[in-house]
Each structure stands twice: as structure tokens, then as C-alpha cells.
Write a structure and sequence with these properties.
Blueprint (H helix, E strand, L loop, with lengths): L2 E5 L6 E7 L9 H12 L7 H5 L4 E5 L1 E2 L2 E2 L4 E6 L32 H8 L5 H7 L3 H18 L3 E9 L2 E2 L7 H9 L8 H16 L6 E8 L15 H10 L4 E6 L17 E4 L3 E4 L7 E2 L2 E2 L4 E7 L10 E3 L6 E3 L10 H24 L4 H17 L1
Antiparallel strand pairs: 1-2, 2-6, 3-6, 4-5, 7-8, 7-9, 9-15, 10-15, 11-12, 13-14, 16-17
Helix pairs in contact: 1-5, 1-9, 3-4, 5-9, 8-9
Bound molecules: flavin mononucleotide.
């Protein structure tokens, strides 16, 4: 079983993640993990301060030796490069407590108010530090290891941005590989140059007005064999697990598999992907409206997931709120914030997709070593062709 947990506050000394269940023999380097962290970190619309202070790098503290996983738990540590400025504010010691550090005006749309009520805290920082999407740096490191495993099994993951602040990209005619490689070069991860410009203008406008923007992105996984996930029990279904993985990312409020909500408007005859067969290729489809999953199991076509990200809750022109101590009405706290995180969110979407797929792969081809897992996969594919 592949499982993981992350720990660490946004401005604490470091983020930590422990990942268990990756088989032995998966080649990996810290540089590979750090490349994923950097893809997550830099995009147009995120805070400029990030570029100077918070260059994320992960140290691998266990589970990897001489460039290969050992099959033991893998620990990642991502240090806060700005810790010296937070030592007092985030100190473990009660002696460092100071009233001036207290935040008392919850932001509508953030975890602030619900968190202080639920956990009986008198400072919204006690909540926002862990609710913050900084935690996704740790998940991206975990996702990088899972992605490495998947690559060794021929599974690749791509993403690009489809929409920001109502500006919609046209990507229908692009192959997955082309959309991805254009997105990799775009400051907003958008493969459509015309839309990219408009998205950047929309972000500049929102920034100038103290506002924020959301959007939509697509993640695609290719090379998934038939039969990842399971139709026999609700919590084993691959679509449900991917949806949970995506919606667990901060600010993610919608998820679609394949044609998703658009399916509801169509007739069945106009939607379902007809089945074909060719000797040597096996069963296949010529369309992929299902998005690669039927009955909670991968059907061998690319897995397509779309995610909707809301505009962020920290506004420089803040909304109305109530002071949690005095109960007086006032505007919400203004804290340092991104304007639009959608491009970074797409990279996080890739990471959580990699984790969910690696978990499903381990269940189907469960092994202690990569070589054994590859053998199981090869035999299974041969079996499918003989079916
Ligand atoms: C990559 C990324 C960056 C984010 N940056 C911010 C930010 O700078 N300011 C903010 O208010 N919310 C930001 N968020 C969203 C909040 O973390 C999130 O809205 C909050 O924790 C409440 O959770 P919910 O929106 O999932 O309900 C970000 C989300 C993502 C995915």
C-alpha cells in the first residue's frame, strides 16, 4: 500500500513528508524532485516575494540510497528559507508570544473562521498556517517520487491551463504532448498564445484592483493499463479517488472526469466511446469522452481530469468580516497573497494524480521491487492480448 502524510506550518522551520510503499529500485535524484518543486513554485500571478526568498528544495532524509529507492519509508524535508524572520512568530516557546503578532479578522473564503471556532483558538494564524497551500510543496515532493515510479512503468502525466478569470483557451486541436510542451513554456501554463496574453492582462488588472482570479486546468495521464481501480467497492473506484485527490488541494472546488458536466447535456448515443478490436492491439476506442475511466476502472485510454480553482480569499481590497475577539464588524485581514495560482495548481494537480495512480498501480501489480512490478505489468499486458 502506498500512503503518505505531510506536516509543517506555512511559516514554520520546514515542511516534512513521509511516503511509504514505493518499491525498491526506483531510480531517483533530489534534482528530479526539486524540478517538480520549481515547476509548482514559479508562475505568473503568484507572489513576487516567492522568487527571492522561498526557492524550495527538498532533502531526502531516508528511503533512498545511491540513487535508488530502498522500499523503506521516504522522508522529504523542505526548509523555510525565510525562517529567521518567523522564529518569534512561529516559536514553540510561550515566552515568545506577543499580542502584536495576533491575527483576529478572518478572511471570508479561507479556513480562518471555521478553524478558530472548531479548534478554540483566538488567533487565525493558528489555522491559516496549516490551511495554506504551502503544504502542497510537500505533496509535490511526494508526487514526484510517485511520478518516477509511474514513468518506469510507461505512465506519463501532463497538465495545462484551460481558463483564467473567464478567458478560455482553445486547445481542442492540440495533442496532449504539444499542449504540455507549449504549457511548459508559458508563464500561465496556457498552450494557446492568444489566450495566454489575455490571461496575463486579466491577472495584471486583478492585481491592480486588489482582487484575485481562479480558473480551470486539465491533467492527463497516458499509458495507464486497463484495470487500475476497482468497480467492486465505493472507495476503490479510481474516479472517486482522483476526485478526492484533486478536491483535497486548497481552493479546488470542481472536478470533472472526461467530458464531466458536459455529459449531462448529451444523448447516450452521442457520448459513449464505441468499442473496437484489432489483433495485436486488443480492445480500443476511437473517442475518449469517458476520460479513460469506466466503472471506476481505467479502460486503457488516457485518463483526463479537469479541475476548477476558485479566486483566492486573501484580497488586498478586503471583504467585510468580524473581529473574533471584540465581535466588531470590520474588514478582513490583509496578508501577503497570490493573485492567481491556477498555473501552479495544475502542477499540484499532476502530483496528486501521480499519487492516486501510483496507489492504484501498487494495488494491481503490488511488489517489493520495481523489477518485479515491471514483470507483473508485462505479463498482465500479454494476458490482455491473449484474452
Ligand atoms: C497553489 C496555491 C496557492 C494559493 N495561494 C493562496 C494565497 O496566496 N492566498 C490565499 O488566500 N489563498 C491561497 N490559496 C488557497 C487557500 O489555501 C485556500 O483557499 C484556503 O486554504 C481555504 O481552503 P479552500 O479554498 O480549499 O476551502 C492557494 C491555493 C493554491 C492551490
Amino acid at each position: 500500500m502506498i500512503r503518505y502524510a505531510t506536516a509543517g506550518e506555512s511559516h514554520g522551520p520546514s515542511l516534512t513528508a513521509i511516503l511509504e510503499g514505493i518499491p525498491a529500485g526506483v531510480p531517483v535524484t533530489e534534482a528530479y524532485v526539486n524540478k517538480e518543486l520549481s515547476r509548482r513554485q514559479y508562475s505568473f500571478g503568484r507572489g513576487e516575494r516567492l522568487q527571492y526568498i522561498e526557492k524550495d528544495t527538498a532533502r531526502i532524509l531516508s528511503g533512498v540510497r545511491w540513487g535508488e529507492t530502498l522500499g523503506s519509508p521516504i522522508t522529504f524535508q523542505i526548509e523555510n528559507k525565510d525562517w529567521e524572520n518567523w522564529e518569534k512568530i512561529m516559536s514553540v516557546s510561550a515566552e515568545d508570544q506577543q499580542e502584536k503578532f495576533r491575527l483576529t479578522r478572518p478572511r471570508p473564503g479561507h479556513a480562518d473562521l471555521v478553524g478558530v471556532l472548531k479548534f478554540d483558538r483566538k488567533d487565525t494564524r493558528d489555522i491559516l498556517e496549516r490551511a495554506s497551500a504551502r503544504e502542497t510543496a510537500a505533496r509535490t515532493a511526494v508526487g514526484a517520487l510517485c511520478r518516477r515510479l509511474l514513468e518506469e512503468l510507461g505512465i506519463k502525466i501532463y497538465s495545462w491551463v484551460e481558463e483564467i478569470g473567464g478567458v478560455v483557451a482553445h486547445t481542442e486541436t492540440l495533442s496532449v504532448e504539444d499542449a504540455f510542451s507549449l504549457a511548459e513554456k508559458s508563464p500561465v501554463r496556457c498552450p494557446d498564445k492568444k489566450a495566454e496574453e489575455k490571461m496575463m492582462d486579466a491577472i495584471k488588472d486583478a492585481k491592480a484592483n486588489g482582487d484575485t482570479l481562479g480558473g480551470v486546468y486539465t491533467v492527463v495521464a497516458t499509458g495507464c493499463p486497463v484495470g487500475l481501480g476497482n468497480h467492486t467497492q465505493w472507495d476503490l473506484k479510481l474516479d472517486g479517488r482522483l476526485a478526492q485527490a484533486i478536491l483535497s488541494i486548497q481552493a479546488h472546488k470542481g472536478v470533472e472526469m472526461g467530458r464531466g458536466f458536459d455529459m449531462a447535456k448529451r444523448k447516450g448515443s452521442d457520448l459513449h466511446d464505441e468499442i473496437h478490436y484489432k489483433e495485436g492491439r486488443g480492445f480500443f476506442r476511437e473517442s475518449n469522452n469517458a476520460g479513460g475511466i469506466e466503472g471506476g476502472m481505467s479502460n486503457g485510454e488516457p485518463i483526463v481530469v479537469r479541475a476548477a480553482v476558485k479566486p483566492l480569499a486573501s484580497l488586498r481590497k478586503p471583504l467585510r468580516s468580524v473581529n473574533i475577539l471584540t465581535k466588531a464588524e470590520m474588514t478582513a485581514e490583509i496578508v501577503r497573497s497570490d493573485v492567481c495560482p491556477v498555473a501552479s495548481a495544475a502542477v499540484i494537480g499532476e502530483a496528486v494524480t501521480a499519487i492516486a495512480l501510483a496507489q492504484a498501480v501498487k494495488e494491481k501489480f503490488g511488489s517489493d521491487s520495481l523489477r518485479e512490478m515491471q514483470d507483473h505489468l508485462t505479463r498482465y499486458k500479454e494476458h490482455l492480448l491473449r484474452f
